[in-house]
Amino acid sequence: MLNQLSSILLEVLQPGDVIGFTFFTGYMSMFAASVFFFMERSEVDGKWRTSLLISGLITMIAAVHYFYMRGVWLETKTSPTEFRYIDWTLTVPLMCVEFYLLIKPYGGKTSTLWRLVGYSVFMLVTGYIGESIDPARTVLWGAVSTLGYIGIVYEATLGSVKQVADQSPNPEVSKAVRLLRNFVLIGWGIYPIGYMTMPGGLLGNMGLNLDLIYNIGDAVNKIGFGLVVYGAAVASTKRESVKVMTAVNA
Amino acid sequence: MLNQLSSILLEVLQPGDVIGFTFFTGYMSMFAASVFFFMERSEVDGKWRTSLLISGLITMIAAVHYFYMRGVWLETKTSPTEFRYIDWTLTVPLMCVEFYLLIKPYGGKTSTLWRLVGYSVFMLVTGYIGESIDPARTVLWGAVSTLGYIGIVYEATLGSVKQVADQSPNPEVSKAVRLLRNFVLIGWGIYPIGYMTMPGGLLGNMGLNLDLIYNIGDAVNKIGFGLVVYGAAVASTKRESVKVMTAVNA
Amino acid sequence: MLNQLSSILLEVLQPGDVIGFTFFTGYMSMFAASVFFFMERSEVDGKWRTSLLISGLITMIAAVHYFYMRGVWLETKTSPTEFRYIDWTLTVPLMCVEFYLLIKPYGGKTSTLWRLVGYSVFMLVTGYIGESIDPARTVLWGAVSTLGYIGIVYEATLGSVKQVADQSPNPEVSKAVRLLRNFVLIGWGIYPIGYMTMPGGLLGNMGLNLDLIYNIGDAVNKIGFGLVVYGAAVASTKRESVKVMTAVNA
Amino acid sequence: MLNQLSSILLEVLQPGDVIGFTFFTGYMSMFAASVFFFMERSEVDGKWRTSLLISGLITMIAAVHYFYMRGVWLETKTSPTEFRYIDWTLTVPLMCVEFYLLIKPYGGKTSTLWRLVGYSVFMLVTGYIGESIDPARTVLWGAVSTLGYIGIVYEATLGSVKQVADQSPNPEVSKAVRLLRNFVLIGWGIYPIGYMTMPGGLLGNMGLNLDLIYNIGDAVNKIGFGLVVYGAAVASTKRESVKVMTAVNA
Amino acid sequence: MLNQLSSILLEVLQPGDVIGFTFFTGYMSMFAASVFFFMERSEVDGKWRTSLLISGLITMIAAVHYFYMRGVWLETKTSPTEFRYIDWTLTVPLMCVEFYLLIKPYGGKTSTLWRLVGYSVFMLVTGYIGESIDPARTVLWGAVSTLGYIGIVYEATLGSVKQVADQSPNPEVSKAVRLLRNFVLIGWGIYPIGYMTMPGGLLGNMGLNLDLIYNIGDAVNKIGFGLVVYGAAVASTKRESVKVMTAVNA
């Protein structure tokens, strides 16, 4: 018993446990990303600081949950879906806030923010029902959940987010919205695939591992999302500073 | 036994445990809100920084207590009322301090602060007696406790808080007081409902869950309270900065 | 046994445990006060920052010890005197440093600092002997310990602290010294009362609880001490800034 | 059993456990180095701050993993290779980012960054296979892994990193690239030696200890890497400041 | 058993355990000192900030090790020499760095730094052998170790540290070197005494307690060392600022 107890307390990763490996790297990379976004925040123009703060909060919240999930995995070799949805309940709406913060200085409306948040909450609640509460109809709920996802993609591709961003005199804004849209379109596309690998899902017999897909998807999407915003902030800050210098010299 | 011990140490959330879900999201969202308020503090005018600091302390204190309550819930599927009152003993007076800090630059008096703190302490002490020490007369104590609640609402709706705020040349102050008053009136109204669902309370047979109501109420009220102050601080800082720029150009 | 073990690990507060309640609020309020003093430090004039830092260190050190004492209390329903004296060994001399920092810019001498620290060490060592090492003669040691206490009161009421403070052109300094003196005179007066409630002490049969008295006394004195310094710093910073603005306009 | 349990919880280092000793000093020195790099960051020119942040993240990530490995070592007197590869998966690409950040202001291309990261990932993946998944062919995988290592050395000695650095008007950049290259060439050379001491490796019968070699190598390489960047940042900041002063005086 | 287990987890200090008392105060005072040095760092001239950072790192590293040693002491009433040497391996060279940072702006050479570090490593390695690996010849190793100690004293009293400091136009530098030298001469003299109280040492039969001597010595030396540097930094910053003001007025 002592040996087992010690393994609980020490949480030793077993050789060849690739999924456990990704829980560890997910936890550490998101934690390091938070420190990065929080510290680089002071190096960009004031108007970009709230965006970088939100980037850091997204990875920080994820890091805390990966820390928990990592421990549960080591002990039980399972990872309850609950923790992922707790994480997403907080981080996905914050990702929608990132879209809004980009277009806010150029006339973006709070109604756009609420619409994005509404889509994301709809997507998460129906997805959660399909995974945890009504798994018998997982395909149906997955399809319903996808409607919320489509809503976010629409806003960023054709809707008001895209329209306001295109009118911004700041070229980084338009580029950042396009890149973030790509993350939603391509990066978030990983989650439905994970969803379909559940027993009863479309890809349920292919033997793909849900946790592995989610772990890689989360790290790429959350850190990538933040890096796009960071890149826009740095480029915009640099351009503004050149403009000021030119004006002073002239 | 080992399995049970490990479940203590790992605190694994069970599928479908919606109340446990809200303990986790309450903890994480309040923690993230504290980081947000503390970091955005440097972006607003000096006179607003103490207000944002208090906003962050309120959510920070709540986050620590939700961390505890979360652990106790996972283990025992109960949540002792004691922890909530320890939290409220510190956070409700700090919310009253927020009202005072808003009106202080425009002639708000410390007597107003002490009156608000007095009402809140009265409300909490009598509420605690009704919930923990004298549950046989829970309805009576609930009614007495409500008097303190009415006192705070009065101050913010008709009393000195409202009066001083209306005289402020800063339009954000008056708006913030009105919004915070609404949180007290509507948001804090959740707590008496929770109170009445106790055995012996007016709604004691309706099967509502006290913890679920409290968890949602706390997160909405504490983060919302802070966001109202943050919104006023950002708007006021922006307006002042435009004024300075105009003066410089003229 | 598992149940007991879990209660250790979770440290669940029992309903009606008022002393445990004050251990929790003491811990949280001192922790929050430290964050407050550390963060507000950047808002006051440079010369006040060391004072605010010391204020924050005092409550931080106390918070750490209350965290320990809280855990010990939950488990054993006792609180070893050792922890309190470890806390006081560090925080009481730091409170004496606060007096010194107030008068230092106006000619306060380091000899005054050493005298204050000497009195406080004398008070603590003899008090500790009376409580832990030679409890048979607790009354005698209590009387001896009081001499150190009188020394600190003397310095702040008639001695060099008072004299230098009165010569300061900064009115906040003199006021702060008077208020801190009152904390020593009235607030610290709680401790001898606690001391006398020990078995063999003068009030040993009155059934007062030593820990309850200490918990309330510590929170009021340490946070109050810091708030007095904070108030002086804010008032002085504001006055100086008005003076500078007037000079610029003239 | 209690005694054993307590040794788990307390993690007492045994006298003469030199490897355990280096796990402790590795953990503490990397943690202290992170605090150093993060705090000194504000003392150098803005363009060097991201480099110092990355230096601090590298040692911070290593500190966290050494904290884990230290605990596992105390309990089991072994150290799973998994933890080292989790660490390296994050820190080695970040070291490549350091090279890129040095040459970026002088025309360094992102293609160079991706090439460096690609080499490092290749080196780590094939190395991991040789150590954990296919230990029967450890020599073969070690040789393959070395190709990635050679790629990094090539870039820094003859390739685009070296070329761009030499064109920089800032002499510190060229010097820093040369020093970092030396760390890769000499410092990283420790790892293959460690690799060859595995059973089945070239030096497998010499009784050298893999963990001792890795612990010393990690501390020297990671802190040294950061100190080279720090030295360049300080020298460059000082030179720029002298230039500005001279211009002002002229 | 539960009671014993709880005492492990709670680490309750026993009444009259004076050595345990000093482990606690050592831990807390060094932690508080680190916060002090890190925060006051922003109040002194840029050139002093690295010195204050090193001061804070020294006490921070010591605080972490005292935290461990405190726990081990509570459980076992012993304190393995290993932890002290792990601490000193990192902090004593950092104290040598403090000497170097003082004289660096006035022509101090890195060769002086390496000599100091070399002496300290020699002193520690031979001291460790005498205490842990070859206790039969503890007197011999103690004598050898003293040679390293004499080397550091020589450098600071007659050697290059002293010579460069005397040539500094900044009077605080020369004073600080003299005070730090006194710490080495008098304060570090505590350690050999502790060493001689070992069984087989010169004072082995006098019943002195090694841990008590080390705990008091560490706190006095490490915090005192930092305070000397802090005092020099504050005095130098003030003098420079007066000089600048005089120049502006003239």
From TrEMBL, chains A, B, C, D, E:
Q: Where in the cell is it found?
A: Membrane
Main localization of the protein described in the UniProt heading: membrane
Q: Give the record's keywords alphabetically.
A: Chromophore, Membrane, Photoreceptor protein, Receptor, Retinal protein, Sensory transduction, Transmembrane, Transmembrane helix
Please name the GO terms that the record assigns under molecular function. Answer: photoreceptor activity
List the Gene3D superfamilies hit by this protein, alphabetically.
Rhodopsin 7-helix transmembrane proteins
Q: How does it sit in the membrane?
A: Multi-pass membrane protein
Query: Membrane-spanning regions, if any?
Result: 20-39, 51-68, 88-106, 113-133, 139-158, 179-198
Q: Does the keyword Zinc apply?
A: no
State a GO cellular component annotated for this protein. membrane
**Any one of the GO BP annotations:** phototransduction
The family this protein is said to belong to? Belongs to the archaeal/bacterial/fungal opsin family.
Name the PANTHER family for this protein.
Answer: BACTERIORHODOPSIN _OPSIN, NOPA (EUROFUNG), PTHR28286
Q: What name is this protein filed under?
A: Rhodopsin
